[in-house]
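Summary for the steering committee. One of the milestones for this cycle was to obtain a three-dimensional model of the protein with protoporphyrin IX containing FE bound, which we needed before selecting residues for the alanine scan. The sequence and ligand used are listed below.
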Amino acid sequence: MPGVKKTRQAVVIYTRYERFWHWSQAGLIFFLAFTGFNLHGSYDLLSFETAVTLHSYAAITLMLLWIFTTFWNFTTGNWKQFLPFFGIRTPDGKRSSKFIIFLIRVFAVMRYYAYGILKDEEHPFKKTLRRKQNALQGMAYLTFMIFMGPALWLTGIFYLTYDFWNEIPNAGLYLTIIAFIHTAAAFIIIAFAVIHVYMTTTGHTPFHYIKGMITGVEEIELTDVEKAYLEQDHPERLG
Ligand code: HEM
């Protein structure tokens, strides 16, 4: 907000659970990609049976993690971080004005990654206590949760339970379609992971953002009110 005095301060912005689920999800997706493409036949580092067993256990673990994390997101209010308009304040409070500001922000971030970054410009988005993600990032994670994740777990569950429905007519054809969607979603998630890892290296130093997700600490601008709130209610979050 213009006119409000702010001070830069190191603050724990990613809680312990958030860091735990982030890194476990990253490890599990990497492991699922490795075992999945092994059983797909892309390489033969493991036997088919071992790859299927490991893939199935890792998939069940990831689905449990997603269930817990969805619960955590809703109970802590963190789910709002993924809403496109969250944290956007306009004088008239109208949704249409928020939408325009959101679009301007998305284009500012896109312009930055396409051009500004090469000219050493400052990132147009500054993390705050309320809003941890920029507009483009929030949209990317929402797409991950709404489309890519469900495409994988839905088809994966059909795949896992094939023995229960393999006698319905055309079961073989359905399985081929399911396998195709599952593999396509796996490719998309791998592309997502590659872009995501590239993005993490674009901070002040290549490991700046990665360090933030390990320690939970980032330097952000705090208003006097936010600072007083943290000092009184969460002193452990102030670095
Ligand atoms: C989220 C939950 C997931 C479940 C429940 C799941 C389940 C399965 C199952 C049961 C199979 C077939 C195993 C068999 O042939 O018996 C499979 C195959 C496969 N999975 Fe997953 N999986 C999941 C996530 C992932 C992820 C995250 C990736 C990669 C990033 C992935 C990549 C693959 C690939 C490439 C195949 C081989 C497809 C084929 O050639 O038919 N899976 N998955």
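Key point for the committee: The chain has a mean pLDDT of 92.
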